Model the fold of this input.
Amino acid sequence: MSKIKLLVTITSFETTTSYEVPAIKNDHSIIYKDKDQTTTSYNFKKHSFTRDNKELTLKYVFKKNKKTKGKIYLKEYAKNIDLDIYTTEIITQENYYQIIYKLDNEEFIYKLEVID
Done:
């Protein structure tokens, strides 16, 4: 495992949000904690994404040109919500990862760039 600095960018139709965070990278994933104390793990071998905080756990699996099911678990209500995800692009390079996907016909771009 190595400590890295990561630039995280999330783009939707209306907004683009970017921020830098310290992260840990190993042979198959990158793990980081957002400023709101959400722990995020992106497995770049399996193309899966998990976000966890005190309110919810979100799990997405991405498969290029395929529809998959995402899950949001609402902890307060002990309830799962299923989401349809359609992935249009997955780019995996040594220090750059990008996924373009649609949720409810809205396109999102999730990008991770190792900057240090």
Remarks:
- The first strand starts at residue 2 and ends at 11.
- The domain at 2-114 is CATH 2.40.128.20 (Lipocalin).
- DSSP finds no helices and ten strands in the chain.
